[in-house]
Predict the structure.
Amino acid sequence: MNEIFISWSKSKGKELAKHTKHLLETLLPDIKVFMSEEDIYGGEYVQEKIIQHIEQCNTLVLCFTLDNKKSPWLLYEAGYASGLHKRVIPFLFEKDSLWHSWIDNPMNIAREIDFGKDTFITDFLEAFSIKKTTYTEACIEAYKKSIIEAKEKYRQVDIQCEDFVEKLIAVDKFTITSPFYMDRVAYFLSGFETFELWNAIIQSFLYTGKYLWIYGRKNMKLFGGNFNELFEYLDKKSVQSQMSGIDFKILFLNPASEEVGFAHKDQDIFEPELLATISRAKKTVGSNKVLQKCFKMYSNRREEVIIRVDNCIIYSKPHFDIYGAPNIMTNNKFEVFSASSKKGKECIKKYLEIWDNAVDMFD
């Protein structure tokens, strides 16, 4: 029997699989297309029926999304099919930065069809030996529209933040109990101010990013020697193009402000570290007048931490003790949401207000 088996997992994957099944049935009317959600009936043994249809299919189409990539069902079905020397075609409905680094993963043993590529229609038609006509192209265009609508329906964070959140999810430090999602905000329960978070921020911005705004206090992690590449890149851009296309802003707490006395529980440690980091920052920037304009010092109480990397906001709130001093924020919880959201716009407004009232660090 000539049969195609549709492998899926989770609610979004199920809806994408249904649209895929409908398209294949439309363009290949003589081929049976099996999907467990629609082709297993009351009283039938689910696992037995699935195994039966994997064994009798010629091709397994794997519907891959970021939220089902660790699904045991997908791994089992793809692995079983490949073990039987069936043809496995991964449909990548969402981009996974680690896809090509997987080794011996049954979901990645064959060349994928990437929904996000311009060649999707051609790749699809070639994979199933379907002739390219006005009709087949129209069917696939309608399918693409339905897939986009389904993905939007199940979107957990705004599209501007998906790549960044995926970078964090790929780091074990952030994935033990998080993130969870609500109203298109990704909530991470730990990991704030860690090297791993700063590394993800810097790597997201380097060479392709436009915005990097940092509302810090000492900014020690940035000037500890781990991110020299960032400042080498900014220095080069400032010389070559006067920072054209880049909006870099970094705020330090003003060591001359009264707020210094409330910014940390241990003043013997905080003030020397603040002064030392400002000194390192000035040494790093040197006489570069363009880059100097990207540094300012504020004197207000910092009641929230705002970092902007392109159109993504990383946000956290310090917790204060009974004396008004903030608790240590390293490994604290944080949120990620888009700069175009209501909360994102409020954060941008707040940051710019503080920036406008801050003093130049190099005056």
Remarks:
- The chain has a mean pLDDT of 88.
- The first strand starts at residue 3 and ends at 7.
- The chain has two domains: 3-153, 159-360.
- The chain is about 40% helix and 20% strand.
